[in-house]
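Deviations from the work plan: none for this task. Representative record:
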Amino acid sequence: MGRASLMFVILMTTIFASILVRVQNSIGGVPDVLIRNQLNKEVENISDFVLRAAVRNANSKDFLDSILSGAAVVGEITHVQSFAPGERKIGNCDILSLEYSYAHTEDHYKVKTHIRGSMQGIEVFRDAEMAFSFPMVTLGKVAPNVVYLEFERLLLFPWLYDLFGLSNRLLPDSSPNEYGGQFHGFSFISPTAPYYSVDEMDEDLETWGGAYSKRYLKFNGYNNWIEVENKLPVDSEDDEPLDTDTEFSLMCFAKIDKSGRATSVESSGDKRKQQGTLLWIPSDATDASMQSKPSAAIYFETTSTSSPTGKMHFVVTREDNDSLMVSINYTRTAEVWKKVSFIVTLAYVINPNHPQYPWGSYGLTYETKNEQSILTAYINGVKVGQRIKDGAVRAHKSKYGMILGRTPYTVSENVKNRHFFGIMDQAGMDDRAFTPTEMLLWHQGVMKSTLVQYIRD
Amino acid sequence: MGVLLDVLGSVIIGATLLLMIMTFQLQLQETAGRIYYTSSMIDHMDAAARNVNHIFAMAGVGIPADSICVSANSSSIKFRTYWDCDGDSLSDDRHLIEMKVVDYGYESGKVLEIRQDGSVIMPLGHILFIENMTLNYYNINGVATTTLRDIMSAEILLTFRRDSPWRPAQPLRSNLQLKCFFMNAYLQEGGW
């Protein structure tokens, strides 16, 4: 009897226990669901509030000044404010971070917020994002990493700097190496000019073709050129200012004036044969025989003053002084400069209709592999030629920096320094040989400039 | 005899009490199960609505407002966007997003699938316990339309179906009606 009673009690207790456990599980799960729901609602509201506040911040001049220290927005910059748990707490929510990104101008920005809600051991996270006229493709994807001049800065009265012998190395470098560009020659107000059509339309930039940049650089074809600072890259253990060694890429966007510069009031004589050097990295400035053998260069050669067709050259000189060159026929199409009457002669001003002519991109890559030296030339991101020589020989050392817009020596009496007559943008160098895909991505990244606005809430 | 009656009486009383307690416990268990079922279903519906709303909100990023929809009918919609719904970030590539109800023969019912470029967005693009989805479309003025280029918002009726835990043969149905907007198309039209 006693055993039967004991068994009965144990049986009953087991049944009760199992029921209680199931009840506990069911009832215990309900608060979690309710808390999560409540927390989701709260974090949603807080996220809306924080996103609005972040947009207001991003649009505030004081805020911009505080993160840029008065400098202009160049390329794409991102500023992240991170907060420790509890540092910025609203209700049951912590603001983890606020991320501000600007692309090329303070008007093209986006903000991201990251919020965490926690209550009674339950955590939920919510990210929100809002963008205003932000580029769909950012230049940072494939961009030169040694030097990248985007000419985004207004450079007022550069001739005053020359007059007083002051350094005007004011064209900023978008790469981390802080190479500055110094403008030489005459430009009455500023050699960098704005894209008016962009500022007015501020939407799909593909109609005018070219970069998100606000500005481009003018080259007048007789005395304008840019000297890139001759210094070592930041944290470089190399002894060469620019790494023209076994692997590198050079590139820029340009519109090469189709006619060249004829006689005008500012420049004496016909300059049409001078057209036009884009990028030039001298090899050995002390050796006359090496003057025409740059470590690397891209330039256009006028073969006939009456024809827009000439030769586009892509050159690399190896350390053994042997040069590799790709030369192709190239027809200029852009009317960049316009002649206007000035007193009794002619002067040149930028053609206001030049946006209707497309930008062209010009690039070269050099690499040594499989006991070969390989030079590849690109126009508009597409391979247009390749030159291969036996021997994996590095390119000539570059001790004299980089020059944009002219050669550092007189080519001939007619050609002089082969000054560039046109406009240029996005000039740079990378320490790797871009693959054809990368070169195309770089070209497309600059050209494909659709701006979007969106909210992810 | 008296002892036997006492024992029998106490057994009857004890058994009755036990029966009452067990009944009470079972009712408590069922009530708890109902509450849990209801709240978890509400949670599921809430999450589903949030996902669907988010997908609609990211339609047409970087696409002209009149070119967002590729196809739209009462049971499915397909649209373009430069938003990567899989990674939930802005994308360089244009994506095609499709929403439709698919029957895989699951015991739990049909599935609302959200596909990006043909692939199901995981894990949020596979919404369970769906029986039906009905879509109606509206233009920027809130007037019903079937013209693809005019579609700016959609009214979605989602019918959820889930087997009852206590009567599996009698599934419970819950309807959810929500209006989702092509928020980024509105941003474009708003002249921001």
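Residues 147-449 of chain A form a domain with the Jelly Rolls fold (CATH 2.60.120.200).
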